[in-house]
Amino acid sequence: MVAKPVDYTAALVAGPWEHQFIAANGCRFHVALAGDKKAPLVVLLHDFGQFWWSFRYVLPLLAAAGYRVAALDLRGVAASDKPPHGYDIPTRTRDVAAVIRSLGAVAAVVVGHGTGGEVAWAMGALQPAVTAGVAAFGCPHPARLHHGFLKTLTTTGRRLFAFAQLPTLPEKRLLHTGLLAAIFDIGAAIPLPDDAKAQYLEVLKIPFAAHNSVEALRWLARSAPRPDGHRYRLALQRPLDIAALQLHGAADGLVAADEVFADALALCRNLTTELLDGIGHYLPEEAPAETAAALLAWLARAAPISA
Question: Quick one: average pLDDT of 277-303?
């Protein structure tokens, strides 16, 4: 019996949020929304191999605290459009900026996890007009002032990143072996539940989603010697004046905790850092209450809610 193809509806998980599709930057993007439309906007960006649902525990906590929250499916994955190009970070920052404007906000605090964290950091440099603050979970600042990209990863993280540069094979392994679950197990200190891993795999089976996810990793390597990569890195090396938060799990199995804050400390004039003991890479799922509490404490200063 032939299995029924997976489509975008697999990503529309029900919960205390509403699903909305937004036309922005030439694509249609899916967001899960919660909170008062008049409240300060917080945009959440997911990690590699995941989708908006990775913030399912944090999103309601932020909304209950008085924020408007939009968890976005980045270009190429889950329920957002999947064009054949645009998986570089500058294009993805334009996507996020256009979504913020389409939601009717002048600016938003952008929160990113893992690879979504790199997009969040880049928002401060490339889209300052719409970026009120930046928070990154499990992602060092990408300026590479003190360490090259590979040195920010653990040994296993470097091997996985190198494997992602191969043509075709990584996508096949993600979809047809236990590679995706293995990545989650390597990164986490508190294992993700089996049903959550199954949900991520199901959504990654949406046509083109796995390929587009890996293409975003390939751009990080391919751009290094090219003019576009050079321009990107130069932009990131400008000092960041807006409020920034960097949250990291001390037991992260993918991104090394050693000197993880060095570049952000050098470039961010208003930076808050926190290292969570006993927590791995997947902070919004391993420690949602701690993650939300740290984020809300920072938001109270970075984007206070008017009385």
Answer: 96
CA dihedral 81, 179, 173, 206 (to 10 degrees): -20
Backbone φ, ψ for residue 213 (5° rounding): -60, -45
Give the pair of three-digit tokens for residue 233.
Answer: 């890195």
| CA–CA distances in Å: residue 169 to residues 158, 176, 278, 292 | 17, 10, 33, 37
Prediction pTM value: 0.96
Phi, psi of 215 (to 5 degrees): -60, -35
Instruction: Look at the alpha carbons of 172, 112, 240, 251 in this order and tell me if their dihedral is positive or negative.
Output: negative
Amino acid symbol at 187 = G
**What number of other Cβ atoms are within 10 A of residue 265's Cβ?**
13
> What is the average per-residue pLDDT within 208-218?
97
pLDDT per residue as tens digits for the range 61-76: 999 999 999 999 999 9
Q: Which two tokens stand for residue 33?
A: 């929304």
User: Diameter of the chain by CA atoms?
Assistant: 59
Give alpha helix (H) positions in 87-136: 89-102, 115-126
- Of 19, 281, 266, 236, the C-alpha closest to 146 is 266
C-alpha pair distances (Å), 25 with each of 74, 81, 84, 184, 223: 12, 11, 14, 31, 22
Report the DSSP pairing between strands 68-72 and 27-34: antiparallel
Structural domains of the chain, ranges and CATH numbers in brackets: 8-302 (3.40.50.1820)
Alpha carbon distance 62, 73 (integer Å): 18
pLDDT band at 150 (very low <50, low <70, confident <90, very high): confident
